Amino acid sequence: EYEGDRNSEGERHGFGKARLPNGDTYEGEYERGLRSGRGTYRFKNGALYTGTYLQNKKHGKGVFFYPDGSKYVGDWVHDQRQGYGEYLYANGDTYTGEWANNKRHGQGTYVYKDTGSKYVGCWVNGIQDGPAELIHLNHRFKGRFLSGKPLGHGKFIFDIGCEQHGEYIQPVQEKEEEEEEEPPLPLEPIWKVSEITKLTPWSPHDEEPLVPREADAVTEE
């Protein structure tokens, strides 16, 4: 069902309202039969997108409300979260920063609602990876992350005015003779202290990078 403007060829063109066969609805601008310009798309599962379109795809600035109560406000490219945006998760956590292929990618800040802790730093394909700072209520950690875990040299900075330097080491798993049904969970990196000092200027960028990785292209759902 469609009611609205059309061009001389009879294509939807200008402003209109449409109900799609699957029960979704769209109200907004069309260009030569395709959603282009500003519009609001309501999914029958309760999700809602309001923002700009280009040739039927979310493209430009827009807000997406997800059925679980989460929300994304920011840039879109060809239906993907890409560019800069803020995501409010259903559990109250927030991420503000760069996106690529629908994933957190680049520089960004993730705030954990339950603890008030903040991760400020690099992301690769949705995972904490690269130089970063993990800020807690009365201390913070500065170092590098690899695949979501701290690894290598870093330091804890305490508000009382001192620092604990050291490194995170990945423990090696011992092989067991018996075959296990489930593969064991990877061991958490272990923090090994080297010294405690007064506050010093130092950034994780001084460290040698671990393994740089590129963003993977994500296939459309």
Characterization of the model:
Residues 1-27, 201-221 are annotated as: Disordered. InterPro entries: MORN. Pfam families: MORN. This is Radial spoke head 1 homolog. The protein is mostly beta strands. It has two domains: 1-90, Histone H3 K4-specific methyltransferase SET7/9 N-terminal domain, CATH 2.20.110.10; 92-172 and 189-198, Histone H3 K4-specific methyltransferase SET7/9 N-terminal domain. Helices cover 0% and strands 57% of the residues. It has no helices and 17 strands. It has a 17-stranded antiparallel β-sheet that branches.
Brief summary of the model shown:
With 221 residues, this protein is mostly beta strands. It has strands at residues 2-6, 12-19, 25-31, 34-42, 48-54, 57-65, 71-77, 80-88, 94-100, 103-111, 118-124, 127-135, 139-146, 149-150, 152-158, 162-169, 190-198.
Instruction: Report the top-level CATH class of the largest domain.
Output: Mainly Beta
Number of domains: 2
Into which percentage range does the β-strand content fall?
over 45%
Overall 3D geometry? elongated
Global structural class: mainly beta
CATH architecture designation of the largest domain: Single Sheet
CATH-derived topology of the largest domain: Histone H3 K4-specific methyltransferase SET7/9 N-terminal domain
pLDDT under 50 segments (min length 5)?
210-221
Number of helices: 0
Largest sheet: 17 strands, antiparallel
Number of strands: 17
User: How many angstroms does the end-to-end distance come to?
Assistant: 26 Å
Q: Report mean pLDDT, rounded to a whole number.
A: 88
Function: Functions as part of axonemal radial spoke complexes that play an important part in the motility of sperm and cilia.
Organism: Melanocharis versteri
GO biological process, one term: axoneme assembly
Subcellular location: Cytoplasm, Cytoskeleton, Flagellum axoneme
